[in-house]
Amino acid sequence: MYAVIETGGKQYRVEVGTELAVELLDGAPGDALTIDRVLLVGDGADSAIGRPLVADATVIAEVVRQARGEKLIAFKYQPKARRRVKKGHRQELTILRITDVKLGNRSAAEESRVAEESAKTERQRLEEAAARQAAEDAALAAKLSARTPKAEAETKEKAPSRRSRGKREAAAEEPENDATAETEAKPGRRKARAAAEPDEAAADETAEADEAAEPAESAEAGATTSEADEAPGPVPASEEATTPSDAPKRRRTTTKKDE
After folding, report:
1. What is the model's pTM?
2. Is residue 172 one of the residues assigned to a domain?
């Protein structure tokens, strides 16, 4: 529920719990004030409009404190007259808190209190349901934790039998694996022997060819050395200079001057 009130020549829309600053009213902090000038009262889709005031409608407010508004500057100026006027002003205010809006037998404060109680009971109901669910979860967890050691003990008892069974199976599989490995190794050995025989034959043929080639190489080497000894060497430059030239000498001709 809300209302529109008039105070200090101004109109304000208020509801329970609203704090507003109005022009100065007589009253000390904590005093209760009743405002009779109610122009409108509304509650959802229903509303009561006054002409100009709503009958049997009042608003109760509590004085919170007395205060002053922001500073305002009033400055007057007249050109060519040397007139300058500056004034400051702070409005005196009263801070109010709305505690109740009444219309006939209805009270907004009472309705809000009932709504809060119903919300509280709903909250308590939800909390109780949550606590109940938590208790059930705790009981289930305790039951599971008590069952877990038994299961672990059973698994430990069963574990040795499984291990022994696995050992027996492994021991039974070992002879089969050995026999299979031997049968698989025999064809491999035969293939290795067959591959090694041609290699040995080729090696023998290569050795025989090397032995036959050695006498021929030694004979060629001896012939080469004899030919090198028989071939004349180069003539030294000094001997070439001392040997007489086979070219014919040029005969000198006599001239008249010699005569």
Report:
1. 0.46
2. no
